[in-house]
Design a protein that fits this description.
This protein has 141 residues and is mostly helical. The protein folds into two domains: 89 residues, no CATH class; 41 residues, no CATH class. Helices cover 85% and strands 0% of the residues. Helix 2 runs antiparallel to helix 4. It is globular, with a radius of gyration of 18 Å.
Length: 141
């Protein structure tokens, strides 16, 4: 139950964050908002990681650093920029549900590259998610 509450709290905080991003995008470009938010995150979290997890940070291997680098480039830099650009162009109500389809892509890549298995319920859930996104994308105003 604690895990579910934490996940809901994370979703709530990300929801608030997206509203703040939309407000910031009224006065700045997505590139500026992306870089600024990443810089603030680094300033806040790196010292915290050093304080709370010194052994993990100092014991990190070059392979892990490389993996984290590519993850950071894909997720935090590119993903955040694309997310903010989509919010700027199509608005929060359309962009966020589309971005929230990331588990579908993660599932597909996990099956291809990590030999993960799927079952009928996972396939059904994926089809439902993609159907909902199609409804959002094709909505006419």
């Amino acid at each position: 139950m604690t895990g579910i509450l934490l996940a809901l709290a994370a979703a709530f905080v990300w929801g608030i964050g997206n509203v703040w991003v939309r407000l910031a995008l009224q006065g700045m470009r997505p590139t500026t908002v992306s870089v600024f938010s990443l810089f603030i995150g680094l300033l806040l979290l790196f010292p915290l990681a050093l304080i709370l997890h010194w052994d993990d940070v100092t014991g990190i291997t070059s392979g892990v650093i490389l993996t984290i680098f590519f993850y950071g480039m894909a997720n935090f830099l590119t993903g955040r920029f694309l997310n903010y650009s989509s919010i700027s162009r199509i608005g929060l109500n359309k962009a966020i549900p589309i971005v929230a389809s990331s588990p579908v892509f993660a599932l597909t890549l996990a099956v291809i590259f990590l030999d993960e298995s799927v079952n009928a319920l996972i396939i059904l859930g994926t089809v439902i998610v993609m159907g909902g996104i199609m409804l959002i994308v094709t909505e006419r105003r």
